[in-house]
Amino acid sequence: MFISARDLARMGLLGLRNGNWGGKQILSEQWVKMARTPTEPNPGYGYMNWFLNTNQKLFPAARADSVAYIGNGDNIVFIVYQHGMVAVFRWIAHAQSAEFVRLLLAALKD
Questions:
Q1: What CATH number is attached to the domain comprising 75?
Q2: pLDDT tens across 1-22, in order?
Q3: Which residues contact 17 (CB under 8 A, 6 or more apart)?
Q4: What is the average pLDDT across 26-51?
Q5: Which one of 26, 58, 85, 108 is separated from 101 by 20 to 30 angstroms, measured CA to CA?
Q6: By the 8 A CB rule, do 67 and 82 touch?
Q7: Which pLDDT tens digit goes with each residue over 71-88?
């Protein structure tokens, strides 16, 4: 399946807005809450493909409440609730994504 960066960003905005799109609740707030809740077997994973930064292992520079969708080819949608921001990075090696997030967040502080 192929998806554009713009469509990935739209998915991120839906997550950022707690399932609301244009004033219409597309995903239930309860579903979004559950997707952002750490699972017992792996606190770094919410259900349905939400990677959580709960213990800040995924993205050490980001707060624990940030989340990411990580797909094929390391296409990543990163949601920073603190700043109301969605970032999409495509075809970046997963090992380098934490450094990208660090630089992105450092730029917001300047």
A1: 3.40.710.10
A2: 678 999 999 999 999 999 999 9
A3: none
A4: 88
A5: 26
A6: no
A7: 877 789 999 999 999 999
Q: Domain residues for 98?
A: 5-109
Burial class (CB in 10 A: 0-12, 13-18, 19+), 71: middle
Rounded distance between C-alpha atoms, residue 37 and residue 58, angstroms: 16
- Single pTM value for the model: 0.88
Mean pLDDT computed over 58-68: 94
How many domains in the chain? 1
| DSSP character at residue 39 | P
